[in-house]
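Hi R.,

As promised on Friday, here is the backbone we talked about, encoded as structure tokens. Could you run it through your design pipeline when you get a chance and send me back a sequence?
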């Protein structure tokens, strides 16, 4: 990539939402820079080994409601043997960790294949990608006055030192709302109703050497367990061999035979916006990985040959900042299946709110009353700052509502919406808050999104 200093759209964060934002903006003619602090695209899906993609269907499992770029990415993965299309995956199977509510039509995928696909899509869309670049601070203009201050660029830290990039519109896809927070947009950290408690973090990892037949044999022996290995975990705990505050093993079968993604570790009290807290979580997560592996090998018949095949490059974060926008997604909106006229994405995943705090281990899991709900455009537009959009898990939502919208398919949908809106704002020479959300939704339908008209 040539050293350029001025762009139409600057996307900070190359995770699922950021990649979709950058591709969507570039395809609509905006000169776009995507900034990523790591060395590959995909964020939690690649560097974090978080998988599968949760459901992209309605609550009944009848209609795929998240399409657009998400569907395009999945189909490219399927074409190279890097995913199983969600239409072929049902709830209650090993691909869904035997869960039923909220787990119909998940998408198993290979993180390595996803890296290749995202590189290709960005290259084809002529997105400029800058790896190994850390966001330092937004460059601001205007205010105080009648108009809100505007983001007009960002300072980045690279191997060559500090670099300033100018942009007409910025998109915060950092997950933690770093750009919005440093630009002065109001934010909530965690759940104010619970003293700011945040959902626990998790160190995902990948294993081989666990025959599915062995897992099914244990499930048949202990049908009262419901999911996986509760009885055996209780025995390990009694033996002093299980100290993780999680009562069952959550494992998802991958694309290839004898491949599993493990979502078991429990990192309570982690603040992803605090470097010391985040550093401690990385170390503790790896310690828990060894404890989980030891449990599988020593307590699960047939799992003696389990081997670790991949550790993540970053701990998985469920919750940190919620940027307050022109609209706020509420838990009741989610549960009642409300679809505002300016909805730019649909979602049906339940409210999956893992308990926060230092020692919590429970989960609040509430299934929707309706078939799906809509995320209004105003959830992407921060209050008090112009020329800035947010996408992904830091969108404007309460802690409970975010516990539904935080999973990767809706994050990709909000990313695509932010990219389309940014390109429209550039073309019309207006701030994103001046756009009509219904017009953004219409443009998204042109680009393959499934939205009510």
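Update: got your reply. Pasting your designed sequence below so it's all in one thread:
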């Amino acid at each position: 990539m040539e050293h350029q200093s001025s762009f139409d759209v600057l996307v900070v964060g190359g995770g699922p939402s950021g990649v979709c934002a950058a591709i969507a903006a570039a395809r609509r003619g905006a000169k776009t820079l995507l900034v990523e602090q790591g060395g590959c695209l995909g964020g939690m899906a690649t560097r974090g080994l978080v998988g599968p993609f949760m459901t992209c269907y309605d609550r009944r499992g009848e209609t795929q409601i998240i399409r657009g770029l998400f569907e395009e990415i999945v189909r490219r993965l399927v074409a190279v043997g890097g995913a199983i299309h969600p239409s072929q995956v049902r709830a209650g199977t090993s691909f869904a960790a035997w869960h039923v509510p909220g787990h119909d039509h998940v998408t198993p995928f290979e993180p390595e294949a996803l890296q290749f696909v995202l590189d290709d899509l960005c290259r084809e869309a002529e997105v400029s990608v800058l790896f190994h670049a850390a966001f330092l601070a937004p460059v601001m203009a205007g205010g105080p006055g009648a108009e809100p201050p505007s983001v007009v660029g960002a300072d980045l830290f690279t191997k060559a030192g500090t670099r300033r990039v100018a942009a007409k519109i910025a998109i915060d896809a950092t997950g933690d709302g770093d750009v919005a927070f440093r630009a002065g947009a109001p934010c909530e950290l965690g759940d104010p109703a619970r003293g700011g408690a945040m959902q626990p973090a998790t160190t995902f990892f990948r294993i081989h050497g666990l025959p599915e037949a062995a897992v099914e044999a244990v499930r048949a022996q202990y049908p009262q367990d419901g999911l996986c290995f509760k009885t055996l975990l209780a025995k390990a705990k009694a033996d002093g061999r299980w100290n993780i505050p999680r009562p069952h093993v959550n494992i998802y079968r991958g694309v290839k035979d004898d491949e599993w993604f493990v979502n078991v570790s429990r990192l309570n009290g982690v603040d992803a916006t605090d470097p010391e807290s985040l550093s401690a979580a990385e170390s503790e997560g790896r310690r828990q990985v060894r404890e989980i592996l030891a449990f599988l090998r020593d307590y699960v018949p047939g799992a003696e040959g389990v081997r670790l095949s991949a550790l993540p490059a970053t701990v998985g974060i469920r919750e940190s900042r919620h940027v307050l926008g022109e609209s706020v997604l509420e838990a009741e909106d989610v549960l009642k299946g409300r679809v505002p006229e300016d909805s730019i994405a649909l979602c049906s995943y339940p409210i999956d709110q893992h308990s926060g705090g230092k020692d919590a281990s429970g989960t609040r899991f509430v299934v929707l009353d309706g078939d799906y709900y809509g995320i209004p455009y105003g959830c992407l537009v921060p209050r008090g700052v112009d020329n800035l959009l947010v996408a992904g898990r830091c969108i404007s939502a309460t802690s409970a509502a975010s516990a539904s919208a935080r999973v990767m398919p809706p994050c990709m949908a909000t990313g695509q919406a932010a990219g389309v809106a940014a390109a429209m704002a550039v073309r019309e020479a207006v701030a994103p808050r001046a756009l009509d959300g219904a017009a953004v939704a219409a443009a998204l339908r042109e680009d393959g999104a499934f939205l009510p008209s």
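One thing I noticed while checking it: The first helix runs from residue 16 to 27.

Thanks again,
M.
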